[in-house]
Amino acid sequence: MVAVLKYLIILYGGLFAITNPIGAVPVFLGITHDLSVRERREIATKTAITVIVTLVVFALIGQWIFRFFGSSVDAFAIAGGILLFRMAMDMLSGKLSSVKISTEETEEFDEEVVTLEEVAIIPLAIPLISGPGAITTVMLYMAKAGGVMERAVVLLGIILIGITVWLVLCSANVIKARLGRVGIKVMTRMMGLILTSMAVQMIINGIKGAFGL
């Protein structure tokens, strides 16, 4: 039981660093600045559900994706590590990772008239929160899961991340007021540091597995 709880904590911590919901707060407030509290909560709910569904789907079909493209888990780990490392470098600079969403894409949603569903799904859920890094990570965790229990833990971790995303977005105004822009940038840098170590370890594990070291 202790080992399962430890695995869940490690998984949750890694996904939290990758999805970085706190870093998404300024974008969320910028996109929803003229909406009511009820509408913001509705967007937060739909965003969280989309994040959960997206990550669960890719976690479950990851094995078939590997087989279809003839890619090994180790090769995917190396590629995923490089992707996460690039994201981490952006986060260490206190910037929104261009791997997830560009400034131009955010500005487009400020200028266009879009529905609540569109805002919740794109750009908030995909690719801002459940972007390529998060998708790659859950696919790798599921691929390396040793049994039913570990697979269940991966799915539970995804659900917990979705709940966290909902709580953070619903409390976006409070978080921004308490942390401010500087505080959010500091948090983003801290998540970037954690993500850097994860990326390097992912690359090392991929190289070890690929060359049988």
Automatic annotation (TrEMBL):
According to its UniProt record, where is this protein mainly located? membrane
Q: Name one GO cellular component term.
A: plasma membrane
* This protein's UniProt keywords: Cell membrane, Membrane, Transmembrane, Transmembrane helix
| Location relative to the cell | Cell membrane
- Database matches in InterPro entries: Multi_antbiot-R_MarC
State the membrane topology: Multi-pass membrane protein
Q: Which residues cross the membrane?
A: 7-31, 43-61, 68-89, 120-141, 153-175, 187-207
Q: Which family does it belong to?
A: Belongs to the UPF0056 (MarC) family.
Protein name, please?
UPF0056 membrane protein
Q: Which organism is it from?
A: Thermococcus eurythermalis
